[in-house]
Specification:
The chain is of the alpha+beta class. Helix content is 46%, strand content 15%. It has two domains: 275 residues, no CATH class; 160 residues, no CATH class. Helix 1 packs across helix 18 and helix 6 runs antiparallel to helix 7. Pfam families: DUF2252.
């Protein structure tokens, strides 16, 4: 692995004092020096290593620390398509990326920057913004790892949409160019201007609205009004019922199982921990948010199955009420296991993986959830586990890329590239990275070649999982 000394250090690792005083010219030279050591064309030449681990073996390795009854659901969701497999295969891809030379220009990586880990959500100031929205794998590492994962996901999504190869090629090139151009723009900004940068959804639906297929209902102000209703009140209406004057989660197994129906110990733990033993979580909140949290009381909990790659990690939802039953708050309590990046890019500064997720998210997102925090739980069947908490529903929405026409899909992918560049500019040396990327298309073309090759490799890996399920090596539960 090639490492290049540069001015920004390793995000979330070097915390012993102020950064060294260097000029912008010196930072740019660091980027150019990295480019000489690891040319941009390097990223075009991906080939599976001779000792490449079997991707199914890696997935089964991950499964050991997860809830065993949910693993077949994970495999069933991953086997649905090559893109679905890719979404759950962050670990195999991290192993592949680690087999390649890297730029040495480190940022706080998203760690799983595929197309569907970007979306819309509400800020504490009640603005709708577009940004990265998944940080389970966040950890310091070479900036290009996120870019390469995003680009490969674009090829797979484009193929799933039925887009022609020529369109896919131009779309990926344009998206990577958007990352490069955005980084060049951030390199010219003041530190505060970089930090304040965000993409307001009012601007998004204005620019994207005409690019949505008519039968999708339009991406417009009306649809945004619906998004603004997707809060804890709506979530409670859909997931709870009234029992003896108290709200309770309804059972919808295996996707949602009230704690009282799993084990008494889990039920007691969920209520007791969040209600009376939540001091670690409370301390992770700022004082004013801690005060707000203390105005709620916990009334119920449930296990909840979410996502594709996350399936099997412990995930609960906790129901709280404020002034009365018409004032619900639902928090998601999601397990944070070690990032798939850590074995390859080195461990970050945090031994508590819930804290790792929260701090990485706050570092790279323009704005984060009001109740974002972390805690530790001692589970009856699994010992100490790390978790992070956030609101289960708070104006969250995703753009259905399958309903976008070609122009709309390109706008969306370029927006993802902007959000990724912004995250990297906040957490790394945007001047050095921009100098490394340069003003030409060498990086763009290299990433395209990688993305096409890796998408083909994903087809092979997806078939490997299909075969493993057929042979009984892996279990799958479909359509759940």
């Amino acid at each position: 692995m090639t490492k290049v000394k540069h001015s920004s250090g390793s995000p979330l690792v070097d915390q012993g004092g102020p950064p060294p005083v260097v000029t912008t010219a010196e930072r740019a030279e660091a980027g150019k020096a990295a480019r000489k050591l690891v040319p941009r064309s390097t990223f075009a030449s991906f080939a599976p290593a001779s000792d490449r681990p079997d991707p199914v073996d890696l997935l089964l390795e991950q499964a050991v620390t997860r809830e065993q009854d949910l693993i077949p659901i994970r495999h069933g969701r991953m086997v649905a398509s090559p893109f679905a497999f890719f979404r759950g295969a962050a670990l195999p891809m991290a192993a592949d990326l680690a087999s390649m030379p890297n730029s040495g220009l480190r940022v706080q990586l998203c760690g799983d920057a595929h197309l569907l880990n970007f979306g819309i959500f509400g800020t504490p100031e009640r603005r709708l913004v577009f940004d990265i929205n998944d940080f389970d794998e966040t950890s310091p590492g070479p900036f290009e790892w996120d870019v390469l994962r995003l680009a490969a996901s674009l090829v797979l999504a484009g193929r799933e949409r039925g887009d022609k190869p020529a369109y896919i090629n131009s779309m990926v090139l344009s998206t990577v160019a958007a990352y490069r151009e955005s980084m060049a723009s951030f390199a010219q900004m003041s530190n505060l201007d970089v930090w304040y940068s965000l993409f307001d959804v009012d601007r998004l639906f204005t620019e994207l609205g005409a690019s949505v297929d008519a039968d999708a209902g339009g991406f417009n102000e009306r649809s945004m009004r619906k998004v603004r209703k997707r809060d804890s009140v709506m979530a409670a209406e859909r997931t709870t019922e009234m029992v003896d004057g108290e709200l309770r989660f309804v059972a919808n197994p295996p996707l949602q199982v009230p704690g009282s129906e799993i084990t008494e110990s889990l039920y007691s733990f969920s209520l007791g921990h969040v209600h009376t033993n939540a001091e670690l979580y409370r301390r992770s909140l700022s004082p004013e948010r801690r005060y707000l949290f203390d105005n709620y009381r916990v009334v119920d909990s449930a296990r909840r199955v979410v996502g594709v790659g996350s399936v099997g990690t412990r995930c609960y939802i906790v129901l709280l009420v404020g002034r009365d039953n018409k004032d619900p708050l639902i928090l998601q309590v999601k397990e944070a296991q070690p990032s798939v990046l850590e074995r390859f890019a080195g461990k970050g500064a945090f031994s508590h993986h819930g804290e790792r997720v929260v701090v990485g998210q706050k570092l790279t997102q323009s704005a984060s959830d009001l109740f974002l925090g972390w805690t530790t739980m001692t589970l009856p069947e699994a010992g100490n586990r790390y978790f992070y908490l956030r609101q289960f529903r708070d104006w969250k929405a995703s753009i259905d890329y399958t309903q976008l026409n070609g122009e709309g899909f390109l706008f969306y992918t370029r927006l993802c590239a902007w959000a990724l560049a912004k995250a990297h500019a906040r957490s790394g040396d945007q001047i050095a990275i921009s100098a490394y990327l340069g003003t030409g298309t060498a990086f763009d073309k290299a990433v395209l070649e990688f993305a096409l090759t890796y998408a083909d490799q994903t087809l092979v890996d997806h078939q490997t999982l299909v075969d493993a399920i057929a042979s009984g090596k892996a279990e799958a539960l479909h359509d759940v």
